[in-house]
Amino acid sequence: MRMRGRRVSVSAADTPVSAYRPPSLLLVIPVLGVTQILAWGSSYYLLAVLARPIAADTGWPLAWVVGGLSLGLLVAGIVSPRVGDSIQTFGGRLVLATSAVFLALGLAGLALSPNLPLYIMSWLVVGVGMGAGLYDAAFATLGRLYGQRARTAIATLTLFGGFASTVCWPLSALFVSEFGWRNACLIYAAIHVAVLLPLYVFALPTEPKRELRVAALSTTPEGDGAARSVASGSKLLFVLITLVITISSMISAMLSVHLLTILQAREIALAAAVALGAIVGPSQVGARAIEMLISRFHHPIWTKFASTVFVATGVGLLWVGFPIIAAALIFYGAGIGIESIARGTLPLAVFGEDRYASVMGRIAMPSLIMQAASPSLGALLIDMFGANGALAAFLGLAIVNVALVAALYAILLKRGRPQAA
User: How many domains does the chain have?
Assistant: First the structure.
C-alpha cells in the first residue's frame, strides 16, 4: 500500500524476496479465466437450471433441492481458512487441482444420488470444491504468484467470471434437455477431470514453499508498545475489511435470489421483471471493465467505496419507487460488479502479499457462511415485512456498509493518504 509516497506494510515481519520468477500473466489469466467460468457454472450457478428438473424427476421438495447449494456454501466457508493457508504455504496449483477433484466427485455424487440424504451429502463435497476453487482461492493464487502486480490480474479475472452464468446456463439447459439432469452432472464432472484438472496441473507453475505466518491477525505479539500497536491496528483493519466484504456478500446474495419477487411486488409482470433483471449482468461486466482501465490511478479503498455507494444508490432507488427501474439496477449491478474486484484487491493493498493468501482465506469464511444463510434470511424478511419492508432492510444494511467503508478509509488515512497501489 502506498501512503504519501512510501510503502507501508502492516505485516509483523518482512519475507525475503525470492529469486523465483512467476510465469507470464498472458498464460495464467486465460487458464484461470476458463476454469473459473466452468467452476462457477457447474457449482454456484448449477441449480438455477437444474433445480426444477431435479425436483420434478425425484419428487424431492424444491426447498431441499435448492438448500443443497446453501449447505455447500456453508462448507466452503468452513474450509476457506485452511484453503488460504495451503495456498500461502504451497501455492495455488495443488489447491486448485484438488478443487477440481472435489467438484468432480461431488457432481458425480449428485448424478448418482438415489435419495435426498445422499444428494445433500454430495453438495457438502461440492462445497469443499467451491471453497478451494472459486474467486477467493483464485485471487489468493494470483497474489501468491505476483504480489502487488496481481491487482490488474484480479480485475481481469473477474471479467472472465462475469460470463459464468452467460456461458453455463445455456450449456446446462442443453445438457438437461438432451441427456437429463443426472447426465448433465456427470458431464460437468467429466469436464472437471478432463479439462480443469489438466489445466491446473500443467499450466500453473509449481511454486517454492513458504513459511506460514498469520499470527499477527489473531494474537498480539510480545514486545514493545509499538509492536503491540501495529498488531492492534492490523486486527482492526482486518475486522473492518472482513465486515464490509461480508455485508456486501449478504446484500448481493439476498437480492440475487429475491430480486424478481421484489420487482413483481411493484406490479411488474414476470416477463418484464426478468428483462429488467437481465440488466444487472452487463452492468457488472461494464463496471469491471472500467475499473480495470482506471485501477492504476487510485487505491482499492476507492473501488470499495464506489461499490458500496453504487449498491446503496441502486437499492435506495428501488425502495423509493424511482420510476426508471433500469437506472436503479444499473447502479446496483455496477456496485456488485466492482465489489468482486475490491474483495480481492483491498486486502492485497492493505496487508501486502506476504500473508495475502491466508488473509483471504479468513476473510472468505464469514462471507461465504452469510451467503449461505442470506437467501433464507431474505425470504424471512419478505414474509414478515413484505417486499418493500425487506428492501428497506437491505437499504439499511447498504447504508451501514457505506459508513463502515468511510471509517476504514479514515483509519487508512491516519497511516498516510491512500494513493494508487
Answer: 2
